[in-house]
């Protein structure tokens, strides 16, 4: 079994930002004439620990920002132990991405589409933005604030009525990330989604990696918003404080 360099080792516990150049240098691999062999070895070594690289090795330049994350799935039992600990600065629960759960329960009888609420989706995007700007974190969607697993059956249908499954929901999420964020395609690389199931109910774990670059959410009427984590909340940062925050991030 190969050994992991420090950067890759951090990806075992949380998605980690890096570049291929940094990885090659930590491994002491050739970045010159033997680059192709070095990249092949790097891919094999990461694969041995089930670590994925986005964008993939072979795409882009050595200096391009990439995200390493573990592709293996933890047992539901181990994940539920984390959930049982409740929300904290790096863990947040969401009942849904699309469904207005409260109204759906309290005012039944309407077509499912009537319970779609954009504010629910936007709140989730704010949390992702805040995690990107504040050290990364994990969203559990399909989990209520009291840690009860409510599942995402209705959300799956709202995301893609023809499929009604996780894959359709995940595709919808990726589309939201790309459209609601500035540099959305890059932001999507920092988000890893894994479905989990208990007693016939599916929920998802979304791991969000920290970004060196600030992550801006688009405002509905134009402009941009910046969010960070404060305790268990995602709060907006005023633009007069932006330079200070940017300087703090650049110290690390």
List its traits.
single chain, 252 residues, alpha+beta, three-stranded antiparallel β-sheet
Could you give a quick summary of the protein structure above?
The chain is an alpha+beta fold and 252 residues long.
Task: Summarize the structure in words.
The protein has 2 domains: 6-70, no CATH class; 79-96 and 125-150 and 167-250, Methyltransferase, Cobalt-precorrin-4 Transmethylase, Domain 2, CATH 3.30.950. The chain is α+β, with helices and mostly antiparallel strands and 252 residues long. The protein is built from 10 helices and 10 strands. The strands form 3 sheets. The protein has a 4-stranded mixed β-sheet with strand order 4-5-7-6. Strands 1-3-2 form a 3-stranded antiparallel β-sheet. Strands 8-9-10 form a 3-stranded antiparallel β-sheet. Helix 7 packs across helix 8 (166-180). It is 37% helix and 20% strand.
Instruction: State the strand order across the main sheet.
Output: 4-5-7-6
Question: How many domains?
Answer: 2
Radius of gyration: 19 Å
Approximate helicity band: 25-40%
What is CATH's topology name of the largest domain? Methyltransferase, Cobalt-precorrin-4 Transmethylase, Domain 2
Outline: globular
Q: Biggest sheet, open or closed, and with what strands and sense?
A: 4 strands, mixed
Task: Quickly give the structural class.
Answer: alpha+beta
Low-confidence stretches: none
Strand content: 15-25%
* SSE order, one letter for each helix or strand: HEHHEEHEHHEHHHEEEEEH
Mean pLDDT: 89
Number of helices, counting only DSSP H or I runs of 4 residues or more: 10
CATH architecture name of the largest domain: 2-Layer Sandwich
Determine the N-to-C terminus distance: 31 Å
Provide the CATH top-level class of the largest domain: Alpha Beta
Number of strands: 10
């Amino acid at each position: 079994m190969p050994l992991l360099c420090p950067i890759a080792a951090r990806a075992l516990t949380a998605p980690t930002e890096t570049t291929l150049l940094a990885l090659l240098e930590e491994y002491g691999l050739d970045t010159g004439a033997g680059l192709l062999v070095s990249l092949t070895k790097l891919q094999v070594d990461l694969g041995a620990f089930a670590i994925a690289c986005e964008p993939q090795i072979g795409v882009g330049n050595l200096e391009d920002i990439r995200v390493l994350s573990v592709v293996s799935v933890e047992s539901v039992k181990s994940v539920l132990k984390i959930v049982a600990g409740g929300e904290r600065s790096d863990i947040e629960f969401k009942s849904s991405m699309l469904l207005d759960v409260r109204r759906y329960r309290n005012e039944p009888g309407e077509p499912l589409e009537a319970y779609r609420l954009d504010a629910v989706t936007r709140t989730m995007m704010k949390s992702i933005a805040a995690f990107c700007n504040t050290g990364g974190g994990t969203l559990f969607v399909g989990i209520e604030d009291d840690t009860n697993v409510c599942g995402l059956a209705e959300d799956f249908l709202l995301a893609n009525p023809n499929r009604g499954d996780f894959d359709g929901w995940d595709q919808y999420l990726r589309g939201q990330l790309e459209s609601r964020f500035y540099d959305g395609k890059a932001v999507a690389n920092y988000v890893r989604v894994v479905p989990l199931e208990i007693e016939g109910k599916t929920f998802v774990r979304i791991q969000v990696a920290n970004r060196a670059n600030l992550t801006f959410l688009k405002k509905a009427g134009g402009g941009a918003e910046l969010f960070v984590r404060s305790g268990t909340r995602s709060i907006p940062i005023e633009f007069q404080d932006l330079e200070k925050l940017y300087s703090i991030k650049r110290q690390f």
